[in-house]
Amino acid sequence: MSNKIILKGIAWDHPRGYQPLRATSKAFSEQNQEISIQWDVRSLKEFGDTPIEDLMETYDLITVDHPYMGQAHANKLLLPLEKKISEKILQILEQQSIGPSFNSYRYMGHLYALPIDAAALVAASRDDLVKELKIGLPMTRADLFRLYKKVPDRQSIAWPLCPTDLWCTFLTLCAQDMGRDFIKDYTINEKAGSSVLNEIKQHLEHLHPDSLNWNPIQILDAMASGDEILYSPFLFGYVNYSQTGFARKTVSFHNSPTGAKNGVSTILGGVGLAVSNKCEHPDEAVSYVVYTAMGNVQKGIYAKNGGQPGNLIAWQDEDNNNRSLDFFKNTLQTMENVYVRPQHPGWNRFQEQGADLLHLGLISDVESSKIMKDLNQLYESTV
Residue 249 is part of a domain; what is its CATH number? Predict the structure, then answer.
């Protein structure tokens, strides 16, 4: 027993974040009895904002957000996985990628994580309430304004627009309007950004008043526990809410409304599993990462333990769809056409501060063109 290898991992604090990792670790350790894996958790905000540097000394296995890849590369934080995984396995995993998920963890010729969880902004609805009201779900953003007029006074539509989620929605709408190149030379197109901010201000007049404070989990909790919120057009999907028994009511998920550029859906989220460059047992850690990312584990243990898999095999699996009101089938089109955020060093610091700047600008009703000028000044100062 004294020779047992203990790996420590850090997940994020939601059943979707930690349950599947604990389950796959148990199964992996049963096959590799000399290895034990322990998981700690951090909040969703910490997952998105806390630098990997703060985790390196303590953890071998780190769940990461793809925009961190540039920072990780510049500071040599993560193990380049292509040095430890065979080309054949990497090709299989790339073929089983959902949209650009796999390649979103590449940076400067290195692969720093494998996708174990795939997500994007999608639409959520209480289909029982929608059918009762005989209203169709919006296909485009223009349809949203028509939908607002059909919602009874006792009910509402909500968007998660706390700073982090406002940021993701803002980037989504910019990409939907201008295509994936609306950011060039460390500058966000000011005309596109101003137009999107003006549109978000128009939407706010029709949304649940708590939208500016809420994150996706808060909206989904409200949708699943009460009957007030019947639809949300842009939030990160959580398969758990579409599975019977997770909450009082089930929530269905769909592709989000689109904009001018039909080939662009929303923004890529999801989680990659990486190995710290300071890990003392890199071969064992990488072996677990590969095990967890492979199609059979993703389709089985991972999905059955509250996970939202990052592998296409799991998304196409009939059992997984039957258990979740076709969550995977109904949102795959969005996943395949996502916008991928920049990954250069400094982006995450800009993202965190930029989100606060946008949020304060909306709350204070600052002129949209001024918000955009301030935002690009901030961008320039952080890279």
Answer: 3.40.190.10
